[in-house]
Input
Amino acid sequence: MGQIKQLTVLLSILALSSACASAGRKAAWETEGGAGAGTGTSTAGASALLEAANAAWAKRDDKAQLNVAIEKWEAAAKADPKNAEPMVWLARAYYFLVDGHLNNEEPENLETLRLELHQKAVDWGERALLLLDPKFEETMRAGGEFEKAISLIEKPAVPAAYWYCTNLSRFANAKGLSARLFYKDRVAAAMRRIKEIDPSYFYAGPDRYFGAFYSALPSIAGKDLKKSEEHFKAAQELASEYLPTKVVQAEFLAKELDDREMYERLLGEVINGADTDSPDIAPENRAAKRAAPRMLKLADDIF
Output
């Protein structure tokens, strides 16, 4: 009876989600105009804005500098609305604003900010995805099925698809169970395609995602802790230098396994791990090292 009751609840939630169109947000392809539609009519100044954004991004350990980068990229996207580059960066930058700063600062309105900022990131990622894969845009604007369309994207669209879906997953988590169920197949389909094209993208991003995905699903919707563990192992083998993978594994898999030893071991490895010399991920590693002690303090409440 327990499983039947769970299934009934799940079906009710899915029905409600389907009735909500996009679970609380409108996708870019559901709006009028092409992917490059916007107020910008000239690329004049966009190059200087991109240069200023890149310089500020290099100092993203400082939240003020990260906000400068976001401001400049948004201005560049408006100045040149057919250039996907600043849009992809915006999707990544908003993710880091939440993950690298706000989560560690824990402001009183953290949940509201998470939802707001991840939604902004999703919006930019969607616009970039439409620009970088015209066939995807054509299919989606014609009312096509997302899972089918995303399974055919080509490699140039991978960065947009990755940051779009990474933020969409976090947006759905912040929104609640119905949104998680509504978007789960969409995000999984995108990550499967990214894994096919470029499995090592962003330091084994697809495997890191699936590690969390199979842990976070409700049991009735496909939770599989063995698959989760396999994907986290693959991610660490592909990119052991990227410390946030261990944070995500502790946050999702260790909790679901009720494995305090794994949780504390992973977070200890993060604390003692190297920042790396790579400017591409050293700030992300330092953010992970700030998150790990905070998470360790929660161990008694979790286990």
User: Anything to note?
Assistant: The radius of gyration is 19 Å. The first helix runs from residue 2 to 19. Residues 1-22 have pLDDT under 50 and may be disordered.
